[in-house]
Specification:
Helix content is 67%, strand content 15%. By secondary structure, it is α+β, with helices and mostly antiparallel strands. The chain has two domains: 111 residues, no CATH class; 125 residues, Histidine kinase-like ATPase, C-terminal domain (Heat Shock Protein 90). It is elongated.
């Protein structure tokens, strides 16, 4: 009788072990599949962002190398014309001014697409230049503090785009008077923080509506940088963003 009980116990124990092994295998497979899906999604987002930045670079090159010289040649030809009366003089002056306006607009578009300073001098110099332009155009007080750090050019572009998106959103939607951006280097990571004193918003509702694309763009670029976007906000309390970016 004792031997039969022992045999039944061994069979039950063996069955439990087999069942545990099967369940463990399925859990492991699910976790591995989720990791693969996350890795694939991250790679897809990175490829889409790279494509977008390359297209911006191409447009900037076309504006600089083709349209810029063409407009300069047109203005040169206009300046060489000799008006015969005051009306023609006024027309030529107006045409020349309009060409200057178009050239300046092209420069603004090129800068917004891809600042030359970002490529030549890096993230900090480009940020100081960008904030200077924003201060000249808007009453928002922007304070920028940043430790020295080194990222790949592609990572610097993504970090710059995050900062650019936050500044533009603050100007357009926050009704804020002040924005503080602080980037510190700590251990083997960079911590990006921003805080405004604006009206804030309902984060959950914002994510669910179509005009929450700005948040999606921030999240996508943060993931490409290997970080996670953290948002702290509520109506009437301002908005704070934080991203921890591992140094490569």
């Amino acid at each position: 009788m004792l031997n039969n009980n022992q045999s039944i116990y061994n069979i039950i124990l063996l069955a439990c072990c087999i069942l545990a092994a099967i369940v463990g295998y399925f859990i492991f497979s699910i976790i591995r599949q989720q990791k693969m899906i996350f890795k694939w999604q991250k790679a897809r987002i990175a490829a889409e962002i790279d494509t977008l930045e390359n297209e911006r670079k191409r447009i900037v090159t076309d504006l600089h190398d083709e349209l810029g010289p063409l407009l300069s040649a047109i203005k040169l030809q206009i300046n060489h014309l000799e008006p015969v009366d005051e009306m023609e003089t006024a027309v030529l002056e107006k045409s020349s001014q309009q060409i200057d306006d178009v050239v300046q607009r092209f420069r603004d578009i090129s800068y917004n697409l891809l600042p030359n300073t970002l490529i030549r001098k890096g993230f900090i110099a480009a940020t100081n230049e960008f904030i200077g332009k924003m201060k000249d155009a808007h009453p928002l007080e922007i304070v920028f503090e940043c430790d020295e750090f080194k990222l790949s050019p592609q990572h610097e572009i993504n970090l710059y785009r995050i900062e650019q998106e936050i500044v533009h959103n603050t100007i357009k939607h926050a009704n804020a008077t002040a924005l503080h951006i602080h980037i510190i280097k700590k251990d083997k990571k960079i911590i990006f923080k921003s805080k405004d004193n604006g009206i804030g918003f309902n984060y959950v509702e914002k994510e669910q509506v179509s005009n929450g694309l700005g948040l999606m763009n921030l999240q996508s670029r943060a993931e490409v940088l290997g970080g996670q976007l953290m948002v702290e906000t509520q109506p009437g309390k301002g908005t704070a963003f934080e991203i921890e970016i591992p140094l490569q």
